[in-house]
Amino acid sequence: DTAVSQTPKYLVTQMGNDKSIKCEQNLGHDTMYWYKQDSKKFLKIMFSYNNKELIINETVPNRFSPKSPDKAHLNLHINSLELGDSAVYFCASSQVLGELFFGEGSRLTVL
Amino acid sequence: AQSVTQLGSHVSVSEGALVLLRCNYSSSVPPYLFWYVQYPNQGLQLLLKYTSAATLVKGINGFEAEFKKSETSFHLTKPSAHMSDAAEYFCAVSEGVGGGADGLTFGKGTHLIIQP
Description:
The complex is a heterodimer of chains A (111) and B (116). With 111 residues, chain A is mainly beta.
């Protein structure tokens, strides 16, 4: 069973469209995150949720909206996609005393 | 604020040679430090972590790292490189225990190339 799973793994879409990425963890962790990895492999935190409560909201355009229906799920919805949104988006989870466990990533390509 | 600097965006070593990947950190409190590895088209996998216990930390796949407070360093080493070690390596720092809800701050990564 995959610990942190993301869907879809690949998204290819046109500018201006809206897309969502779903994430689920079966580790029983309280905290979940979204990270963005750009074309140079740089990883930057976007959001973190602890027990469904938003903790971190980095400087991210408000076109990005996370949603956590329960502590095992954290989804990311992106409105009005732009070329610069092309990246790999990683979901991760952790317990307070543990390291981050990452999903396989969702590669978004905006044309 | 915490930060991580990885010296060398690319490191090339011969198979069987010593691997040394450098990481220096900046933190206002005693840090927690991590090394992750990313293979092509995959997520990040934890290699090892330092959480204020022993300063020499052993990880998976024969890797180890030494925490040196005086040098603010946490370099990653492996005595003998294997072709399967070719990947992207990330050093990360947290000022909370294991990251908490603040997550980790990552370095820019070092691409390790293994020459046959």
